[in-house]
Amino acid sequence: MARTSFFRIWVFFIALSSMTAVSSFGTETRNRVVAIVNNQIITLHELNNTIKELTGHSAEDLKLRNEEQFLDARRQILTRLMDEKIAEEKIKELNIKVGDRQIDAAIEKIKLDYRLTQEDLLTRLEQDELTYEKFRQRIKAQIERAQLIDHEVKSKIIISDEDIAKYYEQNASSFGREAEVHLASIFLMRKNPDDPREMEDLMRRGEEILARLKTGEGFAQVAKKFSEGPGADEGGDLGTFRWGQLDPEARRVLEGIQEGECTDLLVRPNGIQIIKILEKQGGEERPLEDVSDAIYEVLYRQEVDRRYNEWIEGLRKSSYTRIIF
């Protein structure tokens, strides 16, 4: 089964960050060196940027939530950054070049496999707080990694039809057509972000609204009376959304909510929200023929990652590395 090998949109890859901004921790010296890899350095700002990029939270926020987990995550991400520095040197040494046409072709393949229009792709990138240029850089890095492995690991990666069929059988439920949800919302607006007492008042009002809903009062009536957000006059009706159009936090919360149920209070940057699922549609499974190319990319990427990790571990032993904390 001949296929061109590209990578899934959801694969994370460490990219170099700017070295000119201020560190996330105001008390630490900006651009302080935290690691040395041969003749390259990694700064605190670069590390903190990567932590935010991969976790969605600032290093300071993660530390406040759970210092032990923060230290473990920081160690793992710093190790990945150091490995990428080693790989970059090898890519330059081997004169591996990836052009715009290769990147364009890879992106078009991703869109075809996941049935995305350019608008869909840009929407998902925006939800993940990722610019299109940054996305292209990640795709370029993925192709470079594949070419690096092709050069360093002589044996070819073979993904058989049997491998693809087995993966499909084990993950059939994940290949459903994208679900759609009809949502309604009650939103309490935060007008003064600098006033902590206002948030306390919003939480109190939100709890009172939840109590009304739990006693059987209609969501639409309560929304018309109390909501300060979109669709308030229509009973909080927000319309129908494809699952991928929702922001990551909304998707996480709504995964455990059934049709006709409401969320608890959701703290948003500009207020408090309660969401109700009015209707769920879709989720129909797609046949193997429709998703075999996408499965191939998953399995190929997994094998590349496995070989890459083995290769980089060996190369790490012959490199000079030092962590400075």
Could you give a short account of the major beta sheet?
Answer: 4 strands, antiparallel
**Major sheet strand order:** 4-3-6-5
Q: How many domains, as an integer? A: 2
Percentage of residues in DSSP E strands: 5-15%
Overall 3D form = globular
Low-confidence stretches: 1-28
Computed structural class: alpha+beta
Give the termini distance in whole angstroms.
Answer: 50 Å
By CATH, the architecture of the largest domain is named Orthogonal Bundle
How much is the average pLDDT?
82
Number of helices: 11
CATH topology-level name of the largest domain: Triger factor/SurA peptide-binding fold
Q: Helical percent range?
A: 40-55%
Secondary structure: number of strands: 7
Cα radius of gyration in angstroms:
24 Å
Output the CATH class name of the largest domain: Mainly Alpha
CATH H-level homologous superfamily name of the largest domain: Porin chaperone SurA, peptide-binding domain
Series of secondary-structure elements, N-terminal to C-terminal: EEHHHHHHHEHHEHEEHE
Oligomer: single chain
Topology:
Elements (H helix, E strand, L loop, with lengths): L32 E5 L2 E4 H12 L3 H7 L1 H27 L6 H14 L4 H10 L4 H21 L8 H10 L9 E10 L6 H19 L4 H8 L10 E6 L5 H7 L11 E3 L2 E11 L6 H30 L3 E3 L2
Antiparallel strand pairs: 1-2, 1-7, 3-4, 3-6, 5-6
Helix pairs in contact: 2-3, 4-6, 6-11, 7-11
